[in-house]
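Action item from last week, closing it out:
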Amino acid sequence: MATTTGAAIDGAPNRFIATPDKYTALGELLNVAVSTETGVLGKPDVSELLVETYGDQGITGFLKLTGAITAAGASDQVEFYEVGRRHKKLAYTGGNTTAGNGGGAAGNDRVTITDSDIKDGLQPNDVVMDTTSGVRGIVISGGEGSNVVIGRLDGAVMAGNSTDFDATNGGTLIVIGNMYAQGSDQPSSFVQPEVIRRINSYAIVKDRYQVNGSQATNIGYVNIGNGDYRWFMYGEQEARKRFMDKREMTLLFGDIIDGGQKADVSVANSVTDLNGTEGYITALESRGINVSNANANPLDSFAEFDDIILELDKQGAPSEYAMYLNRKQDLAIDDMLASGISTGVTAGLAGQFGAFNNDANMAVKLGFKSFTRGGYTFHKHDWKLLNDPTLVGASNKFQGVMCPLTQVTDARSGMKAPALEMKYKASNGYSREMEHWVTGGGVLGHNNNGDAGKDVATFHYRSEVALLTRAANQHVLIKG
């Protein structure tokens, strides 16, 4: 087919002539784009910096900083053993009887106690003390399953209505020893040591993220790190961090379903057997020292701390604690210390720094501020989880914890173990602590049968973990 062109001007074809239909003003060449948001003309000038509007939102790290180690497990449950109290208090209710005339301690009045704990926990010749009156008595007869008859150890007549050992209202006894006559036999019974068996189940935590093939090739304006402008990679990084947050919160706030027995839980029209898992906060609620503050007021006085210290003494607590607090509680303690504490704060502190290789400067570098009171050293740290208004910070229910920085001896094995330990399922080189894999129908080079026909890459995350809270009676939970 023939092509006809116009006559050349000075040897040049007329397609180079700036005719009206081809003419573009210089300003139009420069102002080629109009922002729909600002109305500004010109080439887009996009900053490569991604602004973290809410700062670093990561809330993980509590378990690591408190010394919680990770260890492999190869069973559906984790068991550990705790030593109970060596000595026991024995409570009795009212409605008991008093009697005079005859026998017993110098033939004076006696009290007969019928409560099962007293009958099972005493035997003849045991010396007891009433915790209210401080009066000492001796078991005249009974015990080992029978009604217990007690008389005053000093042989004196009991006070009216036997208020030395209050038969009418009841009270509490402690066993302080025993006394036997010359030539008498050995006791007929003995006390078994109390060992408490605790069981916790694993929680399986899962999540996923997905990108289609087209999105995986798109390049954005923002540098998401290391010169990478693929926006989907930022989404994947956030999905991984969100998964780690969920895993840590599961280990903190998880609960046993139906007292450890399997319960049917309806999930997406299916029924799944779940045991649940006991989290750290849950363990403290049931077995720890709970400090409750009316109207969500924080601890802000030495008197309140002294009450906690007295309770720690009762529990045989170690001398070094890490405190993880929300901002309100953190500031209240700062104000308390600024008001005139007589002991040092961090750098000038003559306290315990065993958790930081006895180096106060290391504690400072890790973000701890430390003080000592009553022989205890407290390392204070902000806990972002309790401040985040989209997480636990949305409620004033939990204001902080005090975690002992120590090792606990297992009652059965004798092995030393940390107060907190994260267990994960693993066997023969296969670990479920943190599983991550990618499937896809050729996207990003990932192929498998399940997603072979899909134009997507799916990032999978899975973890099977459990947290052991040993000696929870030595931990403190601060609640609003």
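Closing note: Confidence is low (pLDDT under 50) at residues 101-107, 259-271, 342-348.
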